[in-house]
Amino acid sequence: MNALEYFNARLEATISPMDYLKLASSEPDKYFLIDVRNGPDHVKTLTIKDAHIIPQQELQDRLNEIPKDKEIIVYCWDVWCNTAAKVASFLLERGYKVKELTGGIAAWKEMNFPVSDLTKNNNISDSCKC
User: Fold this and answer.
1) CA-to-CA dists, residue 64 to 29, 30, 52, 106, angstroms
2) Residues 26, 19: contact at Cβ < 8 Å?
3) Which of 1, 50, 92, 105 is least surrounded by CB atoms within 10 angstroms?
């Protein structure tokens, strides 16, 4: 693979936070954003606004929640996390159109883009009642 093929493949497989925000704002019904992060709820209190939360470990059992007629955007923690890439591959094998959000939620938060605080929506329980 030469450099041009590499960069074209990368652009086909990923979407930047800026591009996603712009495209989803102009065509909100075209995209289905999924937070695929694994891990305990207390470390996942923030999610990208309007994201569907389907952790990678639950994906197999929740495929019926993911529409085939939309472009699926998946994200995980950061550039060092490959969970979103694993999910993208899994979904592509099943006929979905998928891209990975580059930089994950870390890049999204760094840019001060809209997030949802799940603790305020009572979607996360405080089991220690701290």
Assistant:
1) 18, 18, 13, 28
2) no
3) 1
Number of domains, the chain: 1
Q: What is the pLDDT of residue 46?
A: 92
- pTM of the model as a whole: 0.88
Give the DSSP H/E element, type plus range, for residue 78: none
Helices (H), ranges, the chain = 3-13, 17-26, 83-93, 104-110
3-state secondary structure 84-115: HHHHHHHHHHCCCEEEEECCHHHHHHHCCCCE
Q: How many CB atoms lie within 10 A of CB 14?
A: 18
* Average pLDDT value for residue range 35-46: 89
Asked whether residue 18 is domain-assigned, the answer is yes
**Token pair in block for residue 87:** 């999910």
User: Per-residue confidence at 122, pLDDT binned at 50, 70, 90?
Assistant: low
CATH of the domain at 69: 3.40.250.10
